[in-house]
Amino acid sequence: MKLLFILAAALLIYYIIQLISKSAANQTPRKKSDTASVETVQCRHCGVYLPRAEAVSSNDNFYCGTKHLEADKQTRDS
Question: DSSP string spanning 41-63?
């Protein structure tokens, strides 16, 4: 009889813990991932990928900086 009472109490405690954890999970708003998709482009000179907003562009080509833009122009002019 004592064993049955202990088993019933353990099941009751387990059930209460499950209810509390489900209720806490429902109340916590989930944030969208901070890694939202960002459009990236590839530097024509060195091949590194970077966000389009940070790239330098010229004639539909993208560069990671003005030095690579100038270096690519010199390479094409040669």
Answer: EE-TTT--EEEGGG-EEETTEEE
Closest CA to 69 of 42, 45, 40: 45
Of the candidates 62, 73, 36, the one whose C-alpha atom is nearest the C-alpha of residue 54 is 62
Strand runs labelled E in 1-78: 40-42, 49-51, 56-58, 61-63
Give Dmax (Cα) for the chain: 95
d(CA 63, CA 68) in angstroms, rounded, equals 6
Bridge pairing between strands 61-63 and 56-58: antiparallel
Question: So what's the pLDDT on residue 30?
Answer: 61
pLDDT of 46-75, one tens digit each?
999 999 999 999 999 999 999 999 998 888
Task: Note the pLDDT of residue 23.
Answer: 76
